[in-house]
């Protein structure tokens, strides 16, 4: 007997909860709701999804999403909310990650019975581990390649997002290396473009990084955005490797799940996973999915680093959601498969204590743009201020106290603390 | 001077419209909103996205999506709605389909300035045609391979969705061939599973289809769902081809854009594109995107058939939206690139006249499950009833009149007409 795939959902429906849950189970498996020829009791027993639990929550007189169809003849529909746990036979899916995704999401979002449906989490049977090895580098490999231990990797993103030539990019990288950064990445918008061909960008940037490493012993990790078609990504990866680069970046949602797992099988470098486009799948609380579910699929596919936004970010996501995502990325899967969460968006020294206390460890990449670049003491001071903030956080010293002895942190608080 | 990429959005914001649109343009290009070092006027001129037009629409006192941040100090935010057209320099993107997708969607959905943001359409510069050949078969190739001209392909889906062995599937296929179907497909949930390995399913099903073709001259098109990891899909395609199959199916959103374009480069068979999971991206009108935008990306990637739901479907989508999607799939792109729309969900003979009059042609695949299987005269009668309905529609004869002379259609109207 193999394990079943278990998925947890938040639903809202004007139909009886048991009936609504049965529709979900039927739509996403052998069908138990509308009987068709050949659908024997044995087949349903073996291949039907099961409703494991239904936990009723609140209710509302207005539907969260438009387009749902209340039971016929209902004059004043009452929309009940519940958490529903379904389980799916492993036999239906096999060890295909893309079929797993189709099975736990798929047509569910379009079902007329629901005025809200969101995938909250998914438990994946261990059979998948035999096929998907997961992150090849993860936390340990990233620390080994970057030489940064016992604190977060402090990083930044090349800005402007697009527009720099390979030579201009390399110049900025030189400045960033000298400023003490551990990690630099391309913007998600910058891939292999006419004004900055990947070939030239890799060559010029890696020359700077290698030279700095030869001089100082510190090799800065640069995540080259190789996102594109499959063959372009394979070539891009090999190019980065040939120039002794230590990281490649993928726009996970743009290239897709099959592309990520394909790159993982080929890659000899950590995969930095950006989630551009994620908002469309998660922004409305009654639709789409939580990152708790999505990040598992991307970890299985092989992403080593996963973006999780940041505390007090410039986007719409709440701090609770950000921290839940970050914890999810490092929660072991099959006893391992940990990815490094990447904090980004509106980050400066100030969020270090709260991030550390909420997470309880420093296995993360902490990206700051303005929080480093706009520091009144310059880029090196900006980088130093963040390292100081993390040192304070790890020692349990309030930032203000620590700042009394550390000029760069003091300046950062003066600059950003009132924003 | 190359063309620019043009994208049209529906937005809702408590910020001044001009400012909000500038934030969109800045976030998705070189940035024009928050200036960073190196962002020269020349760079912004060359690489910045441009706000082309802003057309104010209605307004509301309540935000469509939670999490947005009104301007500081606003006590009673007023949420303005508008259609915004942005254009992006080709130089930023190059001819990468996945970067195009990141550029026109990406982080936009998460921006705190917006309580609603939806991508309505995208105009893609002709430069992409040199890299992405689009549907290899499209309408003409599908008609040639199926031998069906001057009317829709009438098809069905193997049900139960999952659970049949390859032998059981082949038995059903035999019945369906004899019933006069033109097209049969795997369910989106049925890929390469332990109880129905693709290898065995292709062999048993194609034996039946070949035998029927040898006997009658009619080769039914079967869309085998080869969705999975890249290497699995390549092997799956070659297997179908080796057994003289004429179609492969991909779950477009599960495998992703890079996988679809990779398969297109390899495929010697039409790609049947299923959009399971699409609801998450489109169900809320203030979030995600219209199919008018998404279908263009999938056509460029090379999908020959694209699911569009159906009139009076069992899901939440309105008839207007269904027909807009279907028209979009056949609207020429770069003077070609037409995909065949696939109508499915709750379809029977009854929707033929409205589908034909709204579309104006018969270049489509019309899938019915219960509308064929549950026909009181049996499967052959179910299939005949749909062909009769299309014949009536194409001749402009009301279904009721045509039914007077055609028993199967008459039975269908009696059976389904009152549902």
- The shape of chain A is globular
Q: Helicity range of the residues of chain A?
A: 40-55%
Structural class of chain A: alpha/beta
Strand content of chain A: 15-25%
Major sheet of chain A, described briefly?
8 strands, parallel, barrel
The CATH topology assignment of the largest domain in chain A is TIM Barrel
Average pLDDT for all residues of chain A: 95
What kind of oligomer do you see?
homodimer
| CATH top level label of the largest domain in chain A | Alpha Beta
Our count of helices of chain A gives: 18
CATH superfamily of the largest domain in chain A: Ribulose bisphosphate carboxylase, large subunit, C-terminal domain
What does this 3D model show about the protein?
- The structure is a homodimer of 419-residue chains.
- The first copy, chain A, is an alpha/beta fold.
- Chain A folds into two domains: 4-130, RuBisCO large subunit, N-terminal domain (Alpha-Beta Plaits); 138-416, Alpha-Beta Barrel (TIM Barrel), CATH 3.20.20.110.
- Helix content of chain A is 41%, strand content 18%.
- Chain A is built from 18 helices and 13 strands.
- Chain A has helices spanning 17-27, 41-47, 90-93, 97-104, 138-146, 166-178, 198-216, 230-242, 252-255, 257-266, 279-282, 291-301, 319-330, 352-359, 370-373, 379-395, 399-405, 407-416; strands spanning 5-13, 50-60, 79-88, 114-123, 153-157, 183-185, 221-225, 247-251, 271-274, 287-289, 305-309, 340-343, 365-367.
- The first copy, chain A, has an eight-stranded parallel β-barrel with strand order 5-6-7-8-9-11-12-13, surrounded by seven helices. In chain A, strands 2-3-1-4-10 form a five-stranded mixed sheet.
- In chain A, helix 6 (166-178) links the parallel strand 5 and strand 6 (183-185).
- In chain A, helix 6 runs parallel beside helix 7 (198-216), helix 14 (352-359) packs across helix 16 (379-395) and helix 16 packs across helix 18.
- At the A-B interface, helix 2, helix 3, helix 4, helix 8 and helix 9 of A face helix 2, helix 3, helix 4, helix 8 and helix 9 of B.
């Amino acid at each position: 007997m193999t394990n079943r795939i278990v998925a947890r959902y938040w639903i809202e429906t004007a139909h009886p909860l048991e009936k609504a849950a049965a529709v979900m189970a039927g739509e996403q498996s052998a069908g138990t709701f509308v009987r068709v020829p050949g659908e024997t009791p044995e087949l349903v027993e073996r291949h039907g999804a099961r409703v494991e639990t239904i936990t009723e929550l609140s209710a509302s007189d207005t539907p969260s999403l438009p387009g749902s169809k209340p039971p016929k003849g209902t004059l004043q529909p009452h929309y009940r909310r519940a958490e529903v746990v379904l389980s799916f036979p492993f036999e239906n899916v096999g060890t295909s990650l893309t079929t797993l995704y189709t099975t736990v999401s798929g047509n569910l979002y379009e079902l007329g019975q629901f005025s809200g449906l969101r995938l909250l989490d998914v438990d994946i049977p261990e059979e998948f581990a035999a096929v998907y090895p997961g992150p090849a580098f993860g936390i340990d490999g990233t620390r080994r390649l970057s030489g940064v231990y016992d604190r977060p990797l402090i990083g930044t993103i090349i800005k402007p997002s697009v527009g720099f030539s390979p030579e201009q990019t390399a110049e900025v990288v030189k400045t960033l290396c000298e400023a003490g950064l551990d990690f630099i990445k391309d913007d998600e918008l910058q891939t292999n473009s006419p004004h900055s061909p990947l070939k030239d960008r890799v060559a010029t940037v890696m020359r700077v990084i290698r030279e700095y490493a030869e001089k100082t012993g510190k090799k800065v990790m640069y995540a080259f955005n190789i996102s594109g078609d499959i063959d372009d990504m394979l070539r891009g990866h090999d190019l980065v490797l040939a120039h002794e680069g230590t990281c490649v970046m993928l726009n996970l949602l743009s290239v897709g799940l099959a592309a990520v797992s394909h790159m993982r099988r080929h890659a000899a470098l950590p995969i930095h996973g950006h989630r551009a486009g994620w908002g469309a799948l998660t922004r409305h609380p009654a639709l789409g999915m939580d990152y708790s579910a999505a990040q598992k699929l991307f970890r299985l596919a092989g992403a080593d680093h996963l973006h999780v936004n940041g505390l007090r970010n410039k986007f719409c996501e709440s701090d609770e959601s950000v921290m839940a995502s970050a914890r999810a990325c490092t929660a072991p899967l099959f006893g391992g498969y940990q990815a490094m969460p990447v904090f980004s968006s509106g980050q400066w020294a100030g969020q270090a204590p709260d991030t550390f206390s909420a997470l309880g460890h420093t296995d993360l990449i902490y990206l700051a743009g303005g929080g480093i670049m706009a520091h009144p003491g310059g880029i090196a001071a900006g980088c130093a201020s963040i390292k100081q903030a993390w040192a304070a956080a790890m020692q349990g010293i309030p930032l203000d106290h620590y700042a009394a002895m550390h000029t760069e942190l003091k300046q950062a608080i003066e600059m950003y603390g009132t924003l």
